[in-house]
Amino acid sequence: MAGKKYVYSFGGGNSEGSGAMKELLGGKGANLAEMASLGLPVPPGFTITTECCVDYFKNGSKLPAGVEKQVKTALAGVEKQMGMKFGDAKNPLLVSCRSGARSSMPGMMETVLNVGLSTKTIPGLIAKTGNERFVYDAYRRLIMMYSDVVMEKAEGIEPAEGKAIRKQLDAMMEELKAKKGYTSDTDLTVEDLKLLCDKFKKQIKTTLNREFPDDAMEQLWGGIGAVLKSWNGKKAVSYRRIEGIPDDWGTAVNVQSMVFGNMGDTSATGVAFTRDPATGDNKFYGEWLINAQGEDVVAGTRTPNPLNQDTCNEQNKHLKSMEELYPELYRQLFDIRNTLEQHYHDMLDIEFTIQEGRLYMLQCRVGKRTGTAALNMAMDMLKEKLIDEKTAVMRVSPAQLDELLHPILDPKAEKSAQLIARGLPAGPGGAVGRIVFHSEEAVKAAAKGEAVVMVREETNPEDVEGMRAATGILTARGGMTSHAALVCRGWGKCCIVGAGCLEINEVAGTMKVDGKVYRAGEIISLNGTRGYVYAGAVATMDSSENPKLQHFMKLVDKYRRLGVRANADNPEDAKIARNFGAEGIGLFRTEHMFYGKNSEKPLFALRKMILSATPEERQKAVKELFHFVKKDIKGTLTAMQGLPVTFRLLDPPLHEFVPSAREARQELAKALGIKLIDIARRAEGLHETNPMMGHRGVRLGITYPEISEMQMRAILEAAAELNRDGHTCKPEIMIPVTCDASEIKFQKEILARVAAEVAKKFKVPAVEYKVGTMIEIPRAALLADQMAAEADFFSFGTNDLTQMTFGFSRDDIGAFLGDYLDKKLLAADPFQTIDQAGVGKLIDIAVKGGRSVKPKLKVGICGEQGGEAKSVEFCHKEGLDYVSCSPYRVPIARLAAAQAAIRCGK
Ligand code: PEP
Ligand code: MG
User: Fold this and answer.
1) Which of 52, 197, 483, 488 is catalytic?
2) Of the bound ligands, which one is closest to the alpha carbon of residue 831?
C-alpha cells in the first residue's frame, strides 16, 4: 500500500483536490478544496482520504504505511501558510479533526476541535491572544470532546447509563454553575475554567484509567484515529443501513487550522442555506451565534440569532440579526452565497466562523431539503437559467416526490383544532399519532403499524431509528439547523423543533404545556410546515395542488421513454390513476371485485360457482356472476376511455372464498339446494396443501373453460356496448400463471369463439382486442419464444416470479426476511425491489426470447416492484414498454422513468 497518495492539502487559493473528488476526499474535503480554489476564505488544512479509512480497517485498525509522513509534510505546509507552529510554545497552531464521508451523514460521526492545546502551548496562546479566558474555555472544550470521542467512544468503552465521561463532565460544569449562581456558560470566569480543567483531567484519569494527553502530536493522532473509527460507530452504522450507504466507502478526515468564533463579541459562528430548505424560497436563510463555536449552533442549547430579516421567526425575533449588527460581514457572506450558487448551480448548506471581525468559510455542501423545497427550487432555478430541464428533472428524488404526495393537515380542520404549542417548522407535511418518548417505543409501534409522534427534549444521533419509524418528531429544543432538523428534512419527515413552551419529562413519559399534562399514548397532530402542535387528531389531506408540480410532471413526461400504467380494479381507482397520469391499466385483477365495498352479491355468486359440483350448477352460477363482472369492467373501461386496459382472467385463491361461518354456509347450501354437510365436504375438497402452486390462474380456465368464457364475454360485450355508444375501448385480455404456450392456445380458442359470437350480436365493427400472458413462472420466462408465438404481449408478474425464482413464499417471507437483511445475505427485499441478478436475469431472457419471435412484442411489468424507482430503472434498461403500479405510485414511476432515461442518455 506504500506509495499511495493519502493526503491532499487545501488553502491559500490553492488545492490539490477539487469538488469532483468526493469519492476520495469525502463531501466536506472535496468542497473545502473547491472553495479554497475559488479564492474563498478557507482556513488552510488537509484531507486524509477515504481510501486511507478503507485501508485502515483492512490493516487491522492501523494506519497504512506512508500516511504519517504525508500528514507531517501537509501539516508543515499549513504551518507555513498560517505562520504558526503546531505544538509550539510561543506561536501555537490549533487544528480541528472532522469526519466527512462521500455523502453527508449529519451528526453520525465524530469531530474534535482545538487539538494542540496543552500545558506547553497554553501560555503561548494566552500571550498571543491576550485572552486567557478564551484559551481556557477552548481547553475545557477540548478536554470534554477529546475524552468522549477519542478516549471513550473510539476505544469501544460502553459506560453504564449516566456514567459516560461526557455526561460526568457536563454534570461537573453544571454543578459549578449552580454553585456560583451562573445561568450561562459564558458566566464562567478564568479561575472557574482553570479549576474545571484540572478537575476534568482528574475525573478522566479515575474513570478511564488514562491521563489526558498533554502532547499536541499525540492529540492529533488520537483525533485522526477516532474519526476513522467513528465510521464503524453504532450510530453511523445504523444511519448507513437506513440510507443504503455502503459500508466500504469509508470516511475522510479533515484536519484544518482552527479559527475561533468564541474569541469575544466580534467573533461568531453560523450555519446557513443559500435558499430556504423547508419551502425552497429564494431567500438566504441562516442562524448564527456570537461568541460561540460551531457545536453550540448544532447542539441547539442556545437559541441562535437570525442571519437576516428573512430568517426571523417566533423564537428568534427578539435577537439581533447579522445583517443588522455586522452589515459589512453580512454583505461579504451574501456575495459568497451568490458565488457558490453560481458555481455549484444548486442550493448549498454552509458553515462559517467570524474570528475577530474576519469571515472564514468552514464548509459547504449541497443542502438537504424537503420535497416541497426540492420541487420549488428545481423549477425556480430552471426559470433563473441556473440549471437546464434535465437537471431540474434530476433534482427531485422519487422519495421527495412521494413526500409531496403525502398528506398535510387539512387547513380547514386546523382552524378549529386546539393549538397547544408552536415550534420551528423543521420537516414538512402533517403527522398525526400517539405520543412516544423513546426511540425503541417508536420502532416497536411502527412495526405494529401504529402511527406515533416521537416527543423529545432534543433528539440526538442515537435516536435515528426511532425518528425513522415515527410519523413525526417534536422537540422542545434545537434550531432549524440542529441535527434533528437536518436529518428529518433529508428524509422529508414531518418535524417540529424548538417548541420551547413544552416541558418534557422523558423518564416520567409526560409533556406539560400551559399546566396541562399529555402522556405517552395520547394523540397529537403536527403541522411540520408551520411548526404548529395540536391536541388530538386533526384531519389530513393531499398536498399535491402546487402548480409547480404540474409543470414539473410535464417536464418529467418529456424525458421518459417508458410508459406508466396503473394496477386498478374499479372505476374509482381507475379515475385516481388517470388523474395521476396513468396511460392505461396494466393489471385489472378481476377477483378484487369480491372483496370490500359492495362485494356481497358478486361474492355470493362466486361462492356458488366455486362450490358447484356439476356443470349445470356451475353454469347457473357463472351466468349470475357474468352481470357483476361485466358491470365492473364497463365502469373501468369508461373511466379509462381511449386508453388500454389489461383485464386479467380470474386468479383467485379459491379456498379463501369459501365461508367458514355456519350461517354463510347455510345460506349457500340453500341457494345451491344442497345440505350443509355437502358444503363442508365440497369445501374440504378444495383444500390445497400449497395453494400458491395449486388450482389457480389459467389452470382454473383449463378445468372450467366456462369460467374463462364468461369473463371473455363480459369484457368483449362491455367494450362492444361502449364502442356502439361512441367510446373507444382497447381491452387486453391477460392469462395468468401460465407455464406453457399450449395453455395460451387453449384459452385463445375459447376467446376466438366468444369474439365471433359477440361480433355477431353487436352490429358494430368488431372490438379490437389483444391477448397476452403474464410471465410469472420461471418456465414461462425460459420458454418465452414459444409463449410469444401465442401472445400479443407479456406482462411480468414479478410478485409470483420472485416467489417462484427464490422459492420464498410471498405470504411467509416476513418470518425470515429480517434475518437475511440483518445478516446482509440479501441487500433488499426482492418483493419490493427487483432482484436484478436472478429474477432480472429471467426477465432479460424472456424479453430477448419473446422479441426474437416478435420484435415488437409489447412487454410490461405489473408486480409490486413496478412502482419502485430502482426497479423502474431496470425496466427502462431492459427496454420494457411500460411499468404498471398502484395509482398513488404512478407519479413516482413517471419520475423514476424520466431519471432512468436521463441517466442512461435515453
Ligand atoms: C404478480 O404475480 O406479480 C402479479 C401481479 O399477480 P398477483 O400479485 O395478483 O399474483
Ligand atoms: Mg401473480
Assistant:
1) 483
2) 1
> Hey, how many other C-beta atoms are within 10 angstroms of the C-beta on 756?
11
* Closest residue by Cα to residue 100 from 249, 237, 244, 216: 249
Tell me if 481 CB under 6 Å of ligand 1: no
SS3 878: coil
Per-residue confidence band for 299, with pLDDT thresholds at 50, 70 and 90 = low
Q: Is residue 862 in contact with ligand 1, taking CB distance under 6 Å?
A: yes
Q: How many Å lie between the centroid of ligand 1 and the Cα of residue 861?
A: 10
Residue pair 716/754 in contact by the 8 Å Cβ criterion: yes
Ion ligand 2: residues, CB within 5 A, are 776, 797, 800
pLDDT at 300: 61
What Rg value do the Cα atoms of the chain yield, rounded? 33
Contact 473, 428 (CB under 8 A): no
What is the 3-state secondary structure of 244-307?
A: CCCCCCCEEEEEEECCCCCCCCCCEEEEEECCCCCCCCCCCEEEEEECCCHHHHHHCCCCCEEC
Q: How many CB atoms lie within 10 A of CB 490?
A: 20
What digits encode the pLDDT tens for the residues 251-292? 999 999 999 998 888 999 999 999 998 889 999 999 999 988
More confident residue, 254 or 514: 254
CA-proximal residue: ligand 1, atom 4 (nearest)? 797
pLDDT digits (tens, 9 = 90+) for 606-654: 888 888 888 888 899 999 999 999 999 999 999 999 999 999 999 987 7
Query: Does the Cβ of 569 fall within 6 Å of ligand 1?
Result: no
| Averaged pLDDT for residues 222-244 | 89
Q: Which residue has the higher pLDDT, 740 or 484?
A: 740
Q: How many helices (H) and strands (E) does the chain have?
A: 35, 34
Q: How far is CA 560 from CA 143, 195, 393, 577, 853, in A?
A: 56, 67, 10, 18, 27
**Are the C-beta atoms of 465 and 242 separated by less than 8 Å?**
yes
Q: Which three cell numbers stand for residue 808?
A: 420464498
Count CB neighbours of 519 within 10 A.
11
Q: Is 799 in the pocket of ligand 1 (CB under 6 A)?
A: yes
Q: Active-site residue 97, yes or no? A: no
**Cβ within 8 Å of residue 2, ≥6 positions away:** 64, 65, 66
Quick check: pTM over 0.85?
no
Q: Mean of the per-residue pLDDT values for the chain?
A: 92
Our mutation pick for probing the ligand 1 site, out of 735, 774, 808, 811, counting the most ligand atoms within 8 A of Cβ, is: 774
Q: What is the pLDDT of residue 168?
A: 96
Instruction: Kindly tell me if the per-residue pLDDT of 1 is higher than 60.
Output: no
592 C-beta closer than 6 A to ligand 1: no
